[in-house]
Each structure stands twice: as structure tokens, then as C-alpha cells.
Design goal:
- It is a single chain.
- The chain is an all-alpha fold.
- The protein contains eight helices and two strands, in the order H-H-H-H-H-E-E-H-H-H.
- It has a two-stranded antiparallel sheet.
- Strand 1 and strand 2 (153-154) form a beta hairpin.
- Helix 1 (10-32) packs antiparallel against helix 5 (109-129), helix 5 packs antiparallel against helix 6 (157-176) and helix 6 (157-176) packs antiparallel against helix 7.
């Protein structure tokens, strides 16, 4: 399959991703309610947004170290962003803000499904951008390989991720409607997405450091950091299931 890229459409789909993701979040919050008061919820959203912006850009620049130097100037320029960096930066920023404000509740469940939907929409823009976006896969001979204009069929990893996120959103939506420990939906989303990126990046042509790219190393480190929380989740899930028997 030969495809003509349209890089100019990428910002449109990126904006659409934010818009639709926020609309889904608002609908979920209106339907299920929110235990956080408005001022605390807006603090969480603001912290997540700032942390995501910084984390996305920082990890994106670290990926480009073999090709360019990191300076304050190119830190503020567009381009070179990563979803993994955004998720991790937002997660860390929210945890810092919660500690400062002494918020002890887990606050991410309302964001899990909207993040799936938003990232999936953004990946459409990544696909339309073609080779300029650096999210394509390695050369392949599979029948669905896509030629982005350089004569080389490649894995359409953007579409693989759209399919994965669609299935994950459906699974998390069903899970969220059943009794579950507070914060479980977001932790499951984050662990699933990090594990996905660790796997899918093996078929992306990124610079490697000791056999893995920087996003994969970030995923591994974050999964280790999440491991105690996942163990706690499984234990809480078992206790919750018993209480509803």
C-alpha cells in the first residue's frame, strides 16, 4: 500500500485528540460524579497538563541526543514529543501536587478511558504525517505494510496502536463500571500502555542504547515503579470481590 503523507493534518488531529478526550472526561465525570472538589480537580488537571508538556518534550529531546544537543532554546521549540514522556511527566507532576496539597485519594480513574481515546485520535495524525513523524515501523513484507513515499513498505505501527487503545478503552470502560479499588482503572491503563510501548517499539527504527531505545528504558523503569502499586491493586481487588460475594 502506497500512501501520500499529509503532515499538515497532524496538528488538526492533535487538537481533536485533546478536544474529544476532554469531552469524554467531562461526560464520564457528569455521569459517575467526582469525589474531589472542583478546586482540587482543577489542580490535578493543571498539574497533569504542565507535567505532560515538560515530560513529553524532555524524553523526546533525550531521544534526539544522537542527532542534536539539548538546549533551553530547543526545549521550547515544537516537535520531538513523546506520549510516554507526557504520561510519566503528568503522573509525576500530579503526585507532587497531591503531596503539596495533602490530597491522599487516587485521582486518575476519570482520565483512563479519555486518554485511550485521545491518544488513538492523535495516532491518526501521526499516520497521516508519514515519515516526518518518526512513529512508523521498520521495513516489512507483510501484506498490510505501508509505503509512506520512500518506496519501502513499513509496519503501520500507528494503526497497531489505534487498535490496541480501542480494545483497552473498551476493557477499561467495562472494568470501571464494576466495583473496584480507587485508582485501579488508571493504574491498569498506565501499566498496559507502558507494556504495549515496550513491546511495539521493538519494531520501530529508533536509536538503541544497550539493546533498547530510551522510551523502552523509560517504560521498564516505570513498570518497576508501578509494580508495588499493581500488587496492592490485586490484593485490594481480591478484598473487594470478597466483600461483594
Amino acid at each position: 500500500m502506497t500512501f501520500t503523507p499529509h503532515p499538515g493534518l497532524h496538528p488538526i488531529f492533535e487538537a481533536l485528540a485533546y478536544t474529544v478526550g476532554y469531552a469524554v472526561y467531562r461526560r464520564s465525570r457528569d455521569r459517575s460524579g467526582d469525589f474531589l472538589p472542583d478546586d482540587h480537580r482543577w489542580l490535578v488537571i493543571a498539574s497533569a497538563s504542565i507535567g505532560a508538556l515538560l515530560g513529553s518534550r524532555l524524553l523526546g529531546l533525550l531521544e534526539e541526543i544522537p542527532f542534536s544537543q539539548i538546549t533551553w532554546r530547543n526545549l521550547l521549540l515544537p516537535g520531538g514529543k513523546t506520549i510516554v514522556g507526557g504520561l510519566l511527566g503528568g503522573w509525576i507532576a500530579v503526585e507532587i501536587a497531591k503531596r503539596v496539597k495533602s490530597i491522599h485519594s487516587r485521582t486518575g480513574d476519570l482520565f483512563a478511558v479519555p486518554l485511550c481515546i485521545g491518544i488513538a485520535i492523535g495516532r491518526i495524525g501521526c499516520f497521516l504525517a508519514g515519515l516526518a513523524d518518526d512513529t512508523f515501523g521498520i521495513p516489512t513484507s507483510v501484506p498490510w505494510g505501508v509505503d509512506f513515499g520512500d518506496g519501502i513498505p513499513r509496519h503501520p505501527t500507528q494503526f497497531y496502536e489505534i487498535l490496541f487503545l480501542t480494545l483497552l478503552a473498551l476493557a477499561l470502560h467495562r472494568y470501571d463500571r464494576r466495583p473496584h479499588p480507587e485508582g485501579a482503572t488508571f493504574r491498569l491503563f498506565l501499566a498496559a500502555y507502558l507494556a504495549w510501548r515496550l513491546a511495539i517499539d521493538f519494531i520501530k527504527p529508533q536509536p538503541l542504547h544497550y539493546g533498547l531505545n530510551l522510551i523502552q528504558w523509560a517504560c521498564i523503569g516505570s513498570l518497576f515503579a508501578l509494580a508495588p502499586s499493581i500488587v496492592e491493586l490485586l490484593q485490594s481487588q481480591e478484598s473487594t470481590a470478597r466483600s461483594f460475594q
